[in-house]
Amino acid sequence: MSFKDYIKDRYILILVNIIMFFISSIFFILINVNIALVLTIMSIWIIALSIVILLDWIKKYKFYSGLLEKLENIDKKYMIPSVIEEPDFIEGKILFDVINEGEKSMHEEVKKYRLSQEEYREYIEMWIHEIKTPISSSKLIIENNKNEVTLNLLEELEKLEDFIEQVLYYSRSNTVEKDYIVKEFSLINSVNKVIKKNRKAIRNKRIKIDIEEFNTTVFSDTKWIEFILNQIIANSIKYSKGINDCIKIYTIQKENNTMLIIKDKGIGIKKEDLPRVFDKGFTGINGRNNEKSTGMGLYIINKLCKKLSIGINISSKVNEGTEVSLIFPKSKMILLEN
């Protein structure tokens, strides 16, 4: 609040004082009061009024300029009520009370929203666990009645399972810390589990899997890592060219991290699509050509990697293949701090 703005806001008070100043001066002159005394009285009046206005402006200037400065410097604007002190003038007190009431109302609404989101998440998880039972039963029936039709049904059920798993991990992606156990585990074991899970798709497409032997251990949550690996490897299989294509999996050791590389020789990703592959719902030209693509897989794993403090990079060239790198920090403390 500049002094000019303050004066503009108080112009009625100042105008009334000016009018009263002239009326009083004329009145004193008409009743024959000594002109020197009139000037003295008017001077005292002007000085007193100026001091009152100046002191009031200084007090309000400090409060409002401090408020604006804090608002500008604070990242989370909604926390402004917690960093300002209650002023000692009435307009400031009213503003202070309004801001605090607004904050209380916001906290109540956020609490209600979080509760509803938690209830929705719990319902989704319950629904997913319930639907897994008939799927498992259907797979068992198919295993006992194998023919061309039932095997096709089995393939569709497995795809359905993958989509359900995506929904489950997406629903949990905002609350990873509630279902996250950091421990040291063998990376090769997790890779082999995921390869085994996808063995049918690998066999159907006649893809070669080249895994370099590595005895690397990393710190993370095995369940979440295996989901991430499954999404990456499933994509490599889906977008492979077919017979004799190869998916190579290996690690690179660095001073502060371990890199797991999953490299395929599939159809690749267009250069203009690469910056957006982690965007929610983005499918790119490959996804549009593949009606089964949802554009959610890479979005979910990127979100999970951020939560797990794992780096993820993708490089690709059309018709040459795609390389996905997962970067695991070697220090367990980095994971715990985040």
From TrEMBL:
Keywords: Cell membrane, Kinase, Membrane, Transferase, Transmembrane, Transmembrane helix, Two-component regulatory system. It is found in: Cell membrane. Its EC number is 2.7.13.3. Pfam families: HATPase_c. SUPFAM superfamilies: ATPase domain of HSP90 chaperone/DNA topoisomerase II/histidine kinase (SSF55874). The chain crosses the membrane at residues 12-31, 37-58. One of its GO terms (biological process) is cellular response to phosphate starvation. Residues 126-332 form the Histidine kinase domain. It is a multi-pass membrane protein. GO terms for molecular function: phosphoprotein phosphatase activity; phosphorelay sensor kinase activity. It catalyses: ATP + protein L-histidine = ADP + protein N-phospho-L-histidine. GO terms for cellular component: plasma membrane. Gene3D superfamilies: Histidine kinase-like ATPase, C-terminal domain (3.30.565.10). It comes from the Bacteria. InterPro entries: BphY/WalK/GraS-like, HATPase_C_sf, HATPase_dom, His_kinase_dom, Sig_transdc_His_kin-like_C. It is an enzyme of class 2 (transferase). The keyword Cell inner membrane does not apply. This is histidine kinase.
